[in-house]
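Ops channel
N.P.: pipeline sanity check, posting one input/output pair.
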């Protein structure tokens, strides 16, 4: 079911829902979908799963998490057995290639997709800006 005209689903009832790449769903769509959870099946509880890659900390999903309104289950690339072998503690050949492609990213895209960080890009002039690299402490400035 699509969420492009979410009010089309207002007469629907679900016990569970799953939103893939949920950062693409705005707060209205998310909240409308959340109201459609009925939890009527015996032994079933209401659950809306919002699967996504990180966005900025201003995104409504991060804000819901920060306020305690939702639980965040963080996953890492090392959790995927296609890319990482838990028994050996090493990347698989596919994982080596995939991580190398993520390591070639820059700026906020690398922070989000490689390291899973919720960082902003809005208003950035230099996408490669990294505070840890490009800001030095005053005490480290040359004295002349």
């Amino acid at each position: 079911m699509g969420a492009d005209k979410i009010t089309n689903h207002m007469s629907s009832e679900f016990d569970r829902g799953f939103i893939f790449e949920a950062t693409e769903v705005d707060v209205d769509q998310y909240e409308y979908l959340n109201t459609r959870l009925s939890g009527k099946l015996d032994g079933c509880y209401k659950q809306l799963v919002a699967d996504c890659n990180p966005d900025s900390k201003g995104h409504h999903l991060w804000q819901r998490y920060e306020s305690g309104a939702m639980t965040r289950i963080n996953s890492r690339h090392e959790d995927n057995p296609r890319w990482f072998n838990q028994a050996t503690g090493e990347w698989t050949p596919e994982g080596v290639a995939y991580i190398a492609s993520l390591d070639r990213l820059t700026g906020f895209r690398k922070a989000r997709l490689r390291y899973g960080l919720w960082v902003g890009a809005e208003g950035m002039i230099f996408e490669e800006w990294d505070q840890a690299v490009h800001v030095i402490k005053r005490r480290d400035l040359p004295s002349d």
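N.P.: looks fine end to end. DSSP finds five helices and four strands in the chain.
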